[in-house]
Specification:
Its EC number is 1.3.1.12. By secondary structure, this protein is of the alpha/beta class. The chain has helices spanning about 10-25, 35-45, 65-80, 95-100, 145-160, 170-190, 200, 205-210, 220-230, 230-255, 260-280, 305-315, 345-355, and strands at about 5-10, 25-30, 50, 60, 85, 110-115, 135-140, 160-165, 290-300, 320-325, 330-340, 355-360. The chain has 3 domains: about 5-165, NAD(P)-binding Rossmann-like Domain (Rossmann fold); about 175-285, 6-phosphogluconate dehydrogenase C-terminal fold; about 290-360, 2-Layer Sandwich (Alpha-Beta Plaits), CATH 3.30.70.260. It is built from 13 helices and 12 strands. α3 packs parallel to α4, α6 crosses α10 (about 230-255) and α10 (about 230-255) packs antiparallel against α11 (about 260-280). The longest helix is centred in the C-terminal third of the chain and has 27 residues, at about 230-255. Bound molecules: 1,4-dihydronicotinamide adenine dinucleotide and 3-(4-hydroxy-phenyl)pyruvic acid.
Amino acid sequence: MTTHVRIVGAGLIGTSLGIALSNKGFRVSLVDPSPTAVRLARDLRAGEIADDAMPPPDVVAVAAPPDVAARVVVTELNRWPDAVVTDTASVKESILRVVLDSGADASRYVGSHPMAGRERSGAAAARGDLFDGRAWVVVPHEGSTEAAVRLVRSLAVAVGSAVSVMPAHEHDEAVAAVSHVPQLASSIVAACLRDLPDTAVGLAGPGIRDVTRIAASDPRLWTQILAGNAPAVRDVMRHVRADVDAVIGALDELVEADGHGSLGTLSRVLEAGNLGHARIPGKHGSAPAAYGVVSVVVPDEPGSLARLLTDMGNAGINLEDLHLEHGLGQAVGVAEISVVPASVEPLLTELARLGWRVHD
Ligand SMILES: NC(=O)C1=CN([C@@H]2O[C@H](COP(=O)(O)OP(=O)(O)OC[C@H]3O[C@@H](n4cnc5c(N)ncnc54)[C@H](O)[C@@H]3O)[C@@H](O)[C@H]2O)C=CC1
Ligand SMILES: O=C(O)C(=O)Cc1ccc(O)cc1
């Protein structure tokens, strides 16, 4: 029997989920207080617009903003007495508390959180492959039924995600460190660029782009996420403050005194960063892939990139990842090609022989 998923909130996450589930043969119905959002989601093939003539859903996925998600979950639990209800909000404990206190049948509620998103909100930014290969946290509570957990897990698996199961408090502590504080750090660094002269901003390279990519995120959404996970975010930010204070202290010493020992402090902060960075897993939570990166200068001409990839293929070298750096108004870009370490030297030699400008 076809599983009917009702998606409440047809923005970036709800519409992406609708497209992905529809592609996998689920029946999807869509609801949103914004008629424009729900029509756009339908036009993007995320599902049908829900109406009262439809059979009841088997599962409801609430993809509404975090500050209303708990209320919507409670409404949906009460409205559909046989449906499992989940939500995709980026915080879990504060929502669970409201659901448990509401008197609704919480045994059918299992929280969840896809660790996939974009800097843009709204249905127009949706993508059917958003969740493919990404982590998806399933967050049961003590009263959740096994059947409800299984159903929520099956949705995540259907859209290509790798499921982790953990309780709400553990989820909130984890995402404070891997998602919420990184968002703040990115925003704080990007804010330093606001008043820089154009000549300084014009020097921006890949480093600042990497660090500030998520600073373009929606402030309304993120204010709600940070407020909804305040205790855990505050604890991580205290660690950040201790490191920032140590760095400022070391720099003060270098500026004002002989700076004895301060280089050690700077080096320790940077080395600790190396250790943290090395722990970031690759796809599906596997160990970090130790690829070598070869940078190739690519002329901004039709067919250049295709020619490069063909040359690689002809050399029998497999592409593991590709990142393009392309400065505005520049006649060339830089293709950063990831390959297994044993392929770095042969690739450098072969591409150089064919006339490409290469760097490792
Ligand atoms: N944006 C991201 O990268 C990620 C977001 N999430 C979570 O998913 C949820 C949705 O986020 P986005 O899709 O990015 O937001 P969005 O702003 O793109 O979409 C939210 C949608 O919910 C609708 N909505 C507002 N109030 C509602 C209500 N009372 N009932 C039903 N729908 C309502 C809005 O009209 C909008 O279409 C949030 O809880 C967020 O924390 C989870 C993972 C990633
Ligand atoms: O852009 C990224 O790297 C993300 O990881 C996006 C994201 C944003 C919010 C979430 O709650 C989960 C994931």
